[in-house]
Every structure is written in C-alpha cells, then in structure tokens.
Structure of Spermine synthase:
Amino acid sequence: MLLTLILNILNDYNTSKYENPGDVIQSSWSFRVLQHACIRTYLNNPFEEQQQNVEEFAQDNDDNDDAWDVVVEDEDVQLLAKFRTMYNHVQVLEVARRAQHPLAGARILLLDKPGNIQSVYLPQKVLTDSYYDVFATLPPLLPEGGPVGILGLGAGTAARILRHFWPAMDIHGWELDPAVIMVARQFFNLSELEEGKDLCLTSGKLHVHIGDALNLSNITIPGGFAGLIVDLFAGGAVIPALQQIETWQQLGEKLSPGGRIMVNCGGSCVEAEAGQNVRDGRITMEETLVAMAMAFSGNKVCMKNLGGSGNNTIALTGPTPDLDVWKQALPECLREGATGWVPVFPDS
C-alpha cells in the first residue's frame, strides 16, 4: 500500500533550505500512518458489483493491513537526507531498532510533500507487510526465462523482494529521478541487487535504467518482457497516463506471449499534493482499472483490494489465475498475495 505519513517536522518545511544530498542530519520526527476507511463505496460500475465480495475479503484481512498504523516517537526517527530535485522532494528517514513499531530498523524513502512512502528497506527482514509483497507473487504466472521490468523502481523495494524469492530472475528497473537512484545506492543497498551478489550460481541481476518509464521506445527487451510491474506515482498520485487506454495497449506490446502486467492502482490511501487538479485517490484508482480493462478486452483484468486501512488495489492482466494452483507455486509466506482476486468486469 502506498501509505501516507504525517510528519511533524521540528524545523520549518522550507524547500529553499533543503540540505545537500548525502548529508546526515540529526533530527527528530513524529509521524504516524493515516488511517482510512477499510472500504469505500465505489462510484461507478462495474465496481459496485464487486463491492460485497471485496468488503468481505477486506474484513477478513483487516487486522494485517493496520500493522503500520502506530505512532512512532520523535526520538525513534532520524532524518538521514533531505533535498529537492526537479522531480521530487526527497527525504530519507530511519526508524530506530528500539522503536515499538513494525517499521523498527527500517529506512524509508519519501518523495512528495504529503509524505507518501515510496520505498522501504528493512535490513533485518525481506517482507514489508504491504503491497510490495504482492508484487513478488507474479513470477509463477509468467512464461519461463523472460525478464521482469519494474516501471517506477524507487529505491528498489519490489526488486529486493523479487530477487530474494526468485534469485535467477533478471530484473530491469526504470526510475525517472537520478537522485532517487543515488540515495537508493547510498542508503538502501541498491548496489547489492545490481551486482547480483551470490544468491545462487545462476543469479540474475537488477539492471537500473534512469529515465521516463513511459518513454516506451526505451522500454524494450529482445523477445519482450515476461512480466511488467507498474508502480508509477507523481506528486502523491497515480500518474494520469495510467488512466489512458493507449498507455496500456502500448505496454501490452512490450510483453512476450503469455506475459502479464501487475499494477499498483493506489486508492483512498494515497494523498496527492495540494493543487488545482487534486483528485480523490479512489476515483483515480477506478479510472486506472477501467482503462486497463478496456485495453486488454481480449483478456480479463482482475484486481485485489488489500483491505485494512490502506485500501490499496492491485491489478493483474491476463485471464484470472487458478488461485489454488497459484498459491501452491509460491513460498508459504507469499500465499496471502494470491487470495482475494476478482475480475474487474466479471461478465466479460
């Protein structure tokens, strides 16, 4: 889930006073994850038809997704870097290991004024108890041998989980802002993934590409991608291009036969930056799902609502998988991610 932090900064939030990247700053922060309604009523069909099933699933899984909704004391959070680029308000936080919080010991990347979490690095464990873990369920559904592309790499959270469970897989990640890659290498151990360090003898690597992930002339691999993971946000919102049918048609052309796309569509949990064109995250999520379903009319698109306070929705292209077969192909700790999927257009 793209979770939102409320940050009580002891110094003024003034972008003209941003420190240089790489500076280590002693500071105290108080933050908590915003709590949102577990499920909201969808505004337009076909989502109203799915409401009852999604509500029941979310109620069954509500406790798991509230894990981050706990206050962290000021003295348990340190600001490691803060600066502005032409694309982002970059901030890196570290939560002390002593903190009584699921994110204890984590490093967190924030990229916008509302403070939406873009990446999490937990050196002491792999899984994050968030939507990143669902991304790691994708490989068993894909054609064998092909690489996976991540559009919206951030500091590499999804790539790290994928590499842990599927170490032979080659991953190509695109990130728009070179400063994000810089802090990812400095604070999030991204270089380890790029080097393909000895997870197995046939270990794959993460190949980092800096540039616009939707400049689709650059998103090309011989033979196509076995899978794509799309996690593209700007200013705290799913980017507008993902509400366009043409975008999904073009992304579909980048896949090898049988390939699939898994997408973070956001939801009410996403807090966009203030401005004239601010839109509710739930509406943006719905429009993204409709655009995907229209683009892949020959194959059903299915969705999974993560439930709980995050209210995040993940989408998957291709025929709805056999969930039992999918779960059996996954490590036990990932099997929850293969539950609760329902078609966006159930009658198509």
The radius of gyration is 19 Å.
